[in-house]
Automatic annotation (TrEMBL):
Superkingdom, taxonomy of origin: Bacteria
Entry keyword annotation includes Flavoprotein: no
Transmembrane regions: 22-43, 49-66, 78-97, 103-125, 170-192, 198-217, 224-245, 251-269, 281-306, 312-330, 342-359
Organism: Prosthecodimorpha hirschii
UniProt keyword annotations, A-Z: Membrane, Transmembrane, Transmembrane helix
GO biological process, one term: regulation of gene expression
Keyword Transport assigned: no
Cross-referenced InterPro entries: AbrB_dup (IPR017516), AbrB_fam (IPR007820)
NCBIfam families, alphabetized: Gneg_AbrB_dup
The protein, known as: Ammonia monooxygenase
GO cellular component terms given for this protein: membrane
């Protein structure tokens, strides 16, 4: 059996044959998921957006820094990637797709703003921080946390730096955005309405199509092919109205926990000086990206006359789930916010492989996994 185990700053492959080794490694894998579950559960109780991903990442990171060992079997990792892609595609609904053409001006401004936020943050991490191209890119992408982290893992980026940058961004935004929208009033981030789980037939169709598309994308060497292929298949099925199902929590939550285990495991052997330096750079990158996103939101208010709250939530790089949940909690046009956040999410999923191709041509492909 093959497994991913943290070793210093990387995750290495190990194989064991003797029963005692298998039993020990099984316990290491299970322990990592239990720690991730504890962290994700705590963040869920605190109503933290993307709680299962962020909470599991933080918990496993602290455990690894305390010298506890975690591991992730390669086959299990691949299954998690497919299920994550399927779940991400569930955010595409026929209603949202039909309403996208209603906001051409704001979507155009959002597209330009996304490019500027990514480019500005990339410049900061690359030139000021001296990070490599792939690490700087994945740390700069505004939103789509699970997708970006899988891309970072797949392409050999420094997951410690990427995780710090992305998690810090979410944590700060979740505090700042409600204050910016309500004028420093009090609001709680209630959860957005859950998508229907649908019939078992719909679920079987989703999983079958996701697996087939993921394997095809992996075969033709699409970056993070299992995740990207499954996402595109699920998005097409949901957007066209063929299915209305979503993955049930019993399947989806373990996927988020697995992401936390993989990210947190990369912090093995990290010293405090590295953490301090990464946090300082992540804070600077957050400021750069937030200033550019705020300018885009302000221009949208001037251009089409939407409310400040709508524009801030639509442009905030906090992720589809997080910002949609806040829009419901704050009663700020959830359809407008969800459509723009979804547009940004789909744009990231489509553009990232092309950008990664350019980086691969400049730096060469990542080492074989």
């Amino acid at each position: 059996m093959t497994c991913l185990v943290p070793s210093g700053a990387a995750i290495r492959m190990i194989t064991w044959n003797r029963p005692p080794d298998a039993l020990r490694t099984t316990w290491i894998v299970l322990r990592g998921f239990l720690i991730a579950f504890a962290g994700g559960g705590l963040f869920t109780l605190l109503d933290f957006p993307a709680a299962w991903v962020a909470g599991s990442t933080v918990a496993v990171t602290f455990a690894v820094l305390a010298r506890l060992e975690v591991a992730m079997p390669v086959r299990l990792r691949n299954v998690l990637f497919v299920f994550l892609g399927i779940s991400m595609g569930g955010g595409v609904t026929p209603d949202t797709v039909h309403r996208l053409p209603q906001w051409p001006v704001s979507l155009t401004i959002l597209t330009v703003t996304m490019a500027l936020v990514t480019a500005g943050s990339y410049w900061w991490f690359r030139k000021v921080g001296g990070w490599d191209r792939m690490t700087a890119l994945t740390a700069s992408v505004p939103g789509a946390l699970s997708y970006v982290m899988v891309i970072a893992l797949d392409r050999g980026a420094d997951l410690r730096k990427v995780a710090i940058a992305q998690t810090l961004r979410i944590m700060v935004l979740v505090v700042i955005v409600p204050l910016a929208v309500t004028g420093f009033g009090h609001a709680s981030a209630a959860a957005a309405p859950a998508a229907p789980e649908g019939s078992w037939l719909d679920l079987a169709l989703l999983i079958g199509a996701g697996c087939a598309a993921g394997l095809l994308a992996e075969w033709i060497r699409v970056p993070a092919g299992l995740l990207t292929g499954a996402f595109l298949a699920s998005a097409l099925l949901h957007g066209a109205g063929f299915v209305a199902a979503s993955l049930p929590p019993v399947l989806l939550v373990p996927c988020f926990l697995g992401v936390g285990v993989m990210i947190g495991g990369r912090f093995a052997g990290t010293d405090r000086a590295t953490l301090r330096a990464s946090f300082a750079l992540a804070a600077g990158g957050f400021v750069v990206g937030s200033v550019l996103a705020t300018i885009g939101a302000f221009l949208t208010v001037l251009a089409i006359g939407v409310g400040w709250g709508q524009s801030v939530l639509a442009f905030a790089p906090g992720g589809l789930e997080a910002m949609s949940a806040l829009s419901f909690a704050l009663a700020v046009d959830p359809a407008f916010v969800a459509a723009h956040q979804l547009f940004r999410f789909i744009g990231i999923a489509i553009v990232m492989p092309a950008v990664i191709g350019l980086i691969d041509r400049a730096d060469g492909p990542p080492p074989a996994r």
